[in-house]
Write a structure and sequence with these properties.
Structural class of chain A: alpha+beta
Shape of chain A: globular
Order of helices and strands of chain A: HHEEEEEEEEHHHEHHEEH
Strand content of chain A: 15-25%
Oligomer: homodimer
Radius of gyration of chain A: 19 Å
Number of helices of chain A: 8
Largest interface: A-B, 46 and 46 residues
Largest sheet of chain A: 4 strands, antiparallel
DNA sequence: GAATGAAAATGATCTGCGTCAATGTTGGTT
DNA sequence: AACCAACATTGACGCAGATCATTTTCATTC
């Protein structure tokens, strides 16, 4: 898979307080391009993509990218920070659909209906790239590799959703949380961040909501895993002390290590 | 949405016992083309698609289209019958991922890895169209409408998976089964089949597995709904007696009616 | 650094659904 | 037509995790 290539991936954080801060880095310069662009574009092609990308001012925590009901115009890539996708049902209940980290693409679910049925908001200060969907269609018609890349992106998203389906349908609270943490760990390590020590960008409520568990259960499992020296939990700071054990209790095949 | 267009959709069943049976109908003749092809292709374009489609002999019940581990070569459309997609975990447990009815496309989840991690088998005598993925890439590069159509298909699949995610994470047994039946009902009615009376192509076990419920629970909910005159259940034959009530107890917005 | 509200943790209790066990039903095979 | 195996139904019981209630910790803001 191209995103496991040996091309190094760096994350460029930037300073929100500096108005001239480089939240406008081009795709060429962006350390994440290995994640969101196909491997084999020519410089010229990358440039074409680059020109269509709108780079808006970073979002503050809890600012929204789009709301349910908004017309669909663009897809988005996370540059830094984290995004929560969710929907609100008739009873006003929130349902967390997913979390997106730097280098990941979101908004794909609205293409068919041409309007957003879900919403997306920033979990922390977050920079995103906006790519007008019209341009995606246009460019991927011209650049064959880009089209193939889009298909792969979609396919990967579908597969990920299927995994979650299994998680929600069949797994215990402990397995769900274990798998969730392993998944985050893996995604962070892809981004050349620590696989064992990271900060959860989302609240316990969001985790519970996403995993189909009550907040209290999330808390309890965290403390239990801590008691068994699998995790070290300090608020949102997580350290995985025993990766292997975490894999075992998740009944997940342990990917690396 | 294009598949709610007023183009009539007919299902052409065919006789398996007749070796000359028309399981080789062209896309032009196929009553389902409104479902699996974009609305706005020219006759010439449809012809191009038609030439790439492999129409193999129908599958018998429980014959498989592909197995986990198979190399990914093609995507598939159901022409008649029904397909179950599932995966088997390390412990040998089956996880039902989804069901596909005539006019629906499956196999999209394998594009990224280029190999099937899930399997697909026929739930009953089933005819499928096989479209080599290479051709999909090639044709959708040439035919812009086809590319757009593919993106919509993907998007729709993602959205459907998200709906199931919510179902599995938050809903009770009754809500899950209600929503499942309503979903089938809606899909059948799109195919110009009865929305109120249909035959379940899958076993109770599969329903339970798919919805994250024990078989026994599925049975119990069926009998309870029957007792309350919401359904009439006779083996696999289902009749929805009170559509509105079914919507209510599913906490689903009632689409038609 | 005190005050306030939100988020997190912990304990007690309740319940929906899974599990186990037994029986009934169906459809495919000889 | 009779047989068998897979499938479906029904009942009894127990438990994982929801819910409710309370306390503790954390993050803001004045």
């Amino acid at each position: 898979m191209f995103w496991l290539s040996n091309r190094p991936i760096f994350v460029h954080p930037f300073d929100m307080s500096d108005p001239k801060s480089k939240f406008t880095v081009s795709c060429q310069e962006c350390g994440l391009n290995a994640l969101c662009l196909p491997y084999s574009l020519t410089l010229e092609e990358i440039d074409q993509v680059d020109q269509t990308v709108k780079r808006n001012k970073p979002l503050h925590r809890s600012e929204s990218v789009y709301q349910s009901g908004d017309r669909f115009t663009s897809i988005y890539a996370v540059r830094s920070g984290a995004i929560k996708a969710y929907s609100i049902d008739e009873e006003g209940e929130e349902h967390v659909i997913g979390f997106y980290l730097p280098g990941e693409i979101f908004g794909l679910d609205a293409i068919d209906a041409q309007s957003h049925l879900s919403a997306a908001k920033a979990l922390e200060t977050t920079a995103i790239c906006e790519i007008p969907y019209e341009q995606v269609g246009h460019l991927s018609g011209k650049i064959h590799n880009l089209q193939a890349h889009m298909y792969r992106l979609f396919s990967r998203e579908i597969r990920a959703d299927q995994q979650i389906q299994i998680l929600l349908g069949k797994k215990t609270a402990e397995e769900r949380i274990g798998a969730f943490l392993l998944n985050l760990s893996q995604r962070y390590s892809q981004r050349r961040l620590s696989a064992t020590k990271f900060r959860l960008p989302m609240a316990r409520t969001d985790i519970g909501n996403y995993l189909g568990l009550a907040v209290e259960t999330v808390s309890r499992v965290f403390t239990r895993l801590q008691k068994h020296h699998v995790l070290k939990v300090d608020g949102k700071e997580i350290e995985i002390l025993n990766h292997k054990k975490l894999c075992e209790l998740s009944h997940n095949e342990c990917p690396l290590l």
